[in-house]
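pasting for ref
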Amino acid sequence: MSTNDRKVPTSRALLEDLACEDLCTFDHSGNCQAHGYSLDPGEVCPQQQLKQLLEEDDLHPEYAGLSPEAKWWAEQELGSTIHYHNGFGEYVRGVVVVLPDGQRGIKPLELVGNWDNSHAGYHAAKILGDNPGWQPHISNIYEHPSFTDDRGVNPLTTVPFSKEELLEWAGARSQPA
C-alpha cells in the first residue's frame, strides 16, 4: 500500500484511540496510578481531561473542532454582560451579541475602571458610534476563568463614565495633535 492509499485518521479518532477506559486511581501523593501520571496538587489527570473533552464534544457536536476561544464565545448567552480588559485596570463593559460574521462577540456600552483620556478616546468613539462589536481574545475577558489582573479593579462594581466624558474623550481623539 502506498502512502497515498492510507486513510488518515481524524483528530477525534486519534483521541479516542489514546483514551484509556480505566478510571483514575490516586496514591497518597495525589498521583494517578491507573495512568502513571505524576500530578501537582490540583492538577487533573490528562486521561480524565481527555475523557471530559470527548464527552463535551458528544454533548455539543456543534462545538466539535472549535478552538477553546471559539467554543467559549459560542457558549456565551446573548445579551449577557461581560467586560473587556484593555490593560492597566481599564475595562469596556458590553453585552454579548452576534457579530456580522455570525460569531459572538462584545458590543461596547460603557467604560469602567481606571481610564484616562490618553487611552479612552478609541473605545469612547466605538461606544458612541455605530460599532457592531468585536471578538477580543478570551484572556482579556474578566468573566473568563483564565483571566488575571493584578491591579485589583473589579469592573462589576465600578461606576461607568458619563456620556459627557465619553464625548470629550472621543472628541479629543478626533482633534489633530
